[in-house]
Amino acid sequence: MSAPYESLEATVATVTDLSPSIRRVTLRGPGLQRVHPRCLDRRIKLLLPRHDGDRLQDVPRGSDWYPRWQELAGRPAMRTYTARQVRPSSGEVDIDVIRHGTSGPAGRWIETVQPGDALVLAAPIAGAEGGDDVGIAWRPGAARELLIAGDATAAPAIANILASLPDDATGTALVELPTSDDHYPLAAPAGIELRILPCDGSVPGTRLEEELAGLAWPPGCPQHTDEAHTDGATTDEAAEGGADPEAPLWQEAQPDVEARHYAWLAGESTAITRIRRQLVQARGCPRQCVSFMGYWRLGRAEC
Fold first, then answer.
1. Nearest C-alpha neighbor of 241 from the set 71, 109, 108
2. How far apart are alpha carbons 115 and 157 in whole angstroms?
3. How many structural domains are present in the chain?
4. Mean pLDDT on 240-248
5. CB 3.0–4.6 Å: which of 82, 95, 148, 301 could bond 103 by disulfide?
6. Residue 137 forms part of a structural domain
7. Angle of helix 269-277 versus helix 206-213 axis, rounded to 10
């Protein structure tokens, strides 16, 4: 069996503006027929062109791509996204990208990307050992009372998660989008209250925190304010190709089989960490029932 993640050649097939701040890039290539179709919040990697016309010919392909990529002189930027949809039959992958500035390589790329551009996609391969679950942090166990919260960078993952929920799931989904003009396709079971929170100039994460302050979640949990712990950070990035020692805080929790509540939080690292602390320390939600992922950091040019 091959390693869970392999690097694959891809070409931009279409570019579609879903809203003023969200652009969908559809990638196509014969190798993409092998990409595992399970999306949820699974992390995939894009290796971006360094300049106009860059075909990335020197970028290694295959299962041992990561150490070889690290050795490249002038290696291309690599960024992490969530696939919105994988269509193995046609060898296509949809990736929805937030447009918010050109201070980083991914921000510049999404503003200029065109059909025909070359990319390299690193993704889990169907049938590879560990490929079913690698890169996925959504682990609710048997919990049916859910809190799902994230900013715009988490919207594709939230859309995938909501579509996967059973009919008897209950809880709340909070999705912060950049502006009131941004309308992202989201659908939830009847028992999940979906709240869209436009930032409209406020600091990312602010609307999520404000909304959580007025939300009675988790119901029935005892209240306490014990702060005598340190937020941990774990990830399975090594299986994808290596961990970033400067990555934002990250913890992939998994409740036990009797847990009723589960929270999934993703977005700007500082805000998500504060929200997690509020749930665990102030509201008494068990730590093992909260997954939190810092997708990016305010003031750091990662995209």
1. 71
2. 24
3. 2
4. 45
5. 301
6. no
7. 10
Query: Looking at residue 182, what is its pLDDT?
Result: 97
Same-domain status, 108 and 154: no
The CATH number of the domain holding residue 284 is 3.40.50.80
Q: How confident is the model at residue 241 (pLDDT cuts 50, 70, 90)?
A: very low
What mean pLDDT is predicted for residues 265-292?
92
Please count the other Cβ atoms lying within 10 Å of the Cβ belonging to residue 291.
22
Judgement on whether residues 29 and 91 belong to the same structural domain of the protein: yes
Same-domain check for residues 183 and 118: no
Look at residues 105, 17, 7 and name the one whose alpha carbon lies nearest to residue 64.
7
Task: Specify whether 192 is located in the same domain as 277.
Answer: yes
What residues make up the domain containing 92? 5-124
Is the whole-model pTM more than 0.85?
yes
How far CA 300 is from CA of 54, 82, 101, 246, 285, in Å, comes to: 26, 20, 12, 11, 30
